[in-house]
Amino acid sequence: MAPTRAPDPVARPVARLGGAIERVLPLLAVAAFALTVGATLAVAGDTLGYDFRAYWEAAARVLHGQPAYDTSYRAAGGFGLFYYPPPFALAVLPLGLLPVGVATWAWLAVLLGAFALGTALLPTTRTVRWAVVLLAGLSWPFVYGMKLGQVGTVLYLLFALGWRWLDRPAAVGLAGSVGALVKVQPGVLLAWALLTRRWAALAIGAVVLAGAALAATLALGPGAWADFATLLGRVSDPITTPHNFTVGAAAYQAGVPRDAASLLQAASTAVAAAVVVAAALRLPADASYMAAVVASQLLSPILWDHYAMLLLVPVAWLLSRRQWWAVLIPLATSVVLVGAISPTVYPAVFWATLVGVLAAGWRERAPGTARA
């Protein structure tokens, strides 16, 4: 007869505390989210939809028979600068038919809906999903991105879609291809599909890209692609672009000479690319997918502060594995720290997330999971 185990005096109070947290978490999450996002939108004034205005103006230009791109810009960050792929200009064309004020609020509703749907799709527990809502409400990059009308929550939805149905080629193919049509960087997911031999996902992504490119060319003309390439090359300096938060830009803003900062940026880019390859070959599929999600932003020559809201997806993945330290990632750029956040914090949280994903994925690596 097995010996009777003495009751753990700690387990029951901990279980009660956990149950209390689960009950109060939805209320706390909704309250924090509504307060920070609602207050920020309410006081935004003329800055509401700052980035969306660029989408709307591009759509309006096309509807009036003008080019989608204004190639007079010399640096990223200027008001009205539209430097997204031509298919995205085609996608937002209907919004150009609306008055700018109505279009702005309609777009913000789309962004909120994308976040809600993306969070619902996260393949985690209910508690982790509510934790993500709470962390989003406390995250300055998320709140700021909403005020700007940025496409962050659309990419968040696509990343969540790919994660939930990682074994379905259509989901992965759409996450990579549609993401690339919106913001270019998520195209890294198609490289990940290639490295992990997901041929069907890669084929679906290629078909979507080709179809969207053809539609945009027919609607906007072949010159739109040349204008896009010219503009993108001109405004994508990873070092001197104001308010950029790449490794090199953060170092440059901290006083590092430009040449040294450029070397740091080149090293960061090379390591991020190598991590995508190594993770795809050696780690479980979900861990390597998350590494590709994070690296897709680190590989970009422009890393705005609001891009950090996309880290909510790998944060959810880490929390689902009881890596509770991951809550510090969005809290490091919390709304309560606005004005006190050093430029070095943003590349630091991206790299911390990437290292955390690699460490968690390596621990879960079972014999036979390597794809070398």
- The number of strands is 0
Number of helices: 17
Task: Return the structural class.
Answer: mainly alpha
Task: Label the overall shape.
Answer: globular
Q: State the end-to-end distance.
A: 49 Å
Q: Biggest β-sheet, characterized?
A: none
H/E element order: HHHHHHHHHHHHHHHHH
Helix content: 55-70%
Give the domain tally.
1
| Spatial extent as radius of gyration | 22 Å
Question: Would you tell me the overall average pLDDT?
Answer: 91
Percent of sequence in beta strands? under 5%
Indicate the low-confidence ranges by residue numbers. 368-372
Model description:
- The protein has 372 residues and is mainly alpha-helical.
- The chain has one domain.
- α9 runs antiparallel to α10, α13 runs antiparallel to α14 and α15 runs parallel beside α17.
- The longest helix is centred in the first third of the chain and has 32 residues.
- The protein starts with 10 loop residues before the first helix and ends in an 8-residue tail after the last helix.
Question: Could you list some keywords that capture this structure?
Answer:
mainly alpha; disordered C terminus; 65% helix; 372 residues
Question: What topology emerges from the helices and strands here?
Answer:
Layout (H helix, E strand, L loop, with lengths): L10 H32 L9 H12 L22 H6 L8 H22 L4 H13 L1 H9 L3 H13 L4 H15 L4 H8 L3 H22 L2 H12 L12 H7 L4 H25 L2 H14 L13 H8 L8 H4 L13 H20 L8
Helix pairs in contact: 1-5, 1-6, 4-7, 5-15, 7-8, 8-9, 8-10, 9-10, 12-13, 13-14, 14-17, 15-17
